[in-house]
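P.,

For your records, the input lines for the assembly:
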Amino acid sequence: MSAPSSQQILDALGRIKDPDLGRDVVSLGMIKELDVSPQGKVSFTFELTTPACPVRDRFKSQAEDAVGEIPGVTGVEVRMTANVRPAFMRPKPSEILPGVKQTIAVASGKGGVGKSTVAVNLAAALRQSGASVGLLDADIYGPSVPVMTGSRTVPQQSNGRLLPIDAHGMKLMSFGHINPGSEPTIYRGPMVGKAIEAMMIQVDWGRLDYLVIDLPPGTGDASLTLAQAVPLTGVAIVCTPQDVATDIAVKALQMFRKLNVTPLGLIENMSWYVCPSCGHRHEIFSHGGAESAAKRLGVPFLGAIPLEEGIREDADTGTPVVISRPESAGAKAFVEIASQVAARTSIQSFRQLPVINVH
Amino acid sequence: MDVDRERQVMEITWEGGSRSSYTAEQLRWACPCAECRGEAGMPGRLARLQTLSPAEMRIQDVTLVGQYALQIAFESGHATGIYTFSLLRHLVQ
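Structure tokens returned:
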């Protein structure tokens, strides 16, 4: 039997649909370097839009099966790779954060729900999947990132720009690095905006697949500055399950909707607690509040994270739990949420930003 | 978004394909900034004025703000108005 043609292979692979992008993987340009040997051995590269792809393994086996069924195929080799695509199709590269492909904001409206913990672990999980990741701590008054990443160092300067701090393979910048120690930052609103802008413009972020931005609580200066300065790929909203937290999370989400920033979805933090002595599962702050709020608002629910001592301990000692205890339930929840976030951001690569032509 | 500085007209083609057209003069009088609109119960500049100088009503440049609005700079230097897309839709209704 003769070897199949490349077209036959592509026709077969064209029946595989990307569940998030809603199109087939061939027309999305994910199949590359296709080679068919005269003996019928087929090899190709399957290029995902994110290394944290939640359906990576399914795609691989679907591709192997689809090609394997074609008469004349004697072997299939699928090389899985990933290349994060920049958010939005735009005529010219952005002037602000030009090397950053995707900007993901983490917000909550309400304070104390674990925004920074989620942001740090989301960034670390994306890094672990193989992406290049930065983390910008936009909380000027209460920066938590330096402690949570064990990076209480002062940034170096080069050519008049600040170099982000390297920790756990990620690039970090926080006002806690710029103004370390116990000295408070006493700023009025407009200064907060300036400080956040400076952390985007005056920091040499270089090339990044993802820049995760940890926002302070509130629906004011910091969030507005950010949404005006860069076309954010999307925003993930963190809340705890009880009404007092979800109500404010909804406000934050609606603010970003008004600013045309895509809500990537809701994350429920401190969702449950398993008592280490009795093994019982307690729902201290209630449970399922974020999921029902997400349903009500028509946005994705990205997942729930348990309340674990380990998450807190590792945050205090400066190693995100996804790195220090990858087998814990908390770490697994973060990894799952990161891949959901990555899948949602991939969709944004196919959106067009408004084009302005002044002449 | 097409801004014709010679004719001083801005045209928007919306995602659905419909088109809206605005004169620079119309946009200047619709400026939503606090100085023009007033704040804290105080009337703004546009409520007090009857006329504006020609330079006030000529568009210099238009830039995108995040992904929700346009910032329009007029030749007079006035550029504090952030025109959200929803405002721009309302203006032509």
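Two observations worth noting. The mean pLDDT of chain B is 92. The CA atoms of residues 12 and 20 of chain B lie 5 Å apart.

Regards
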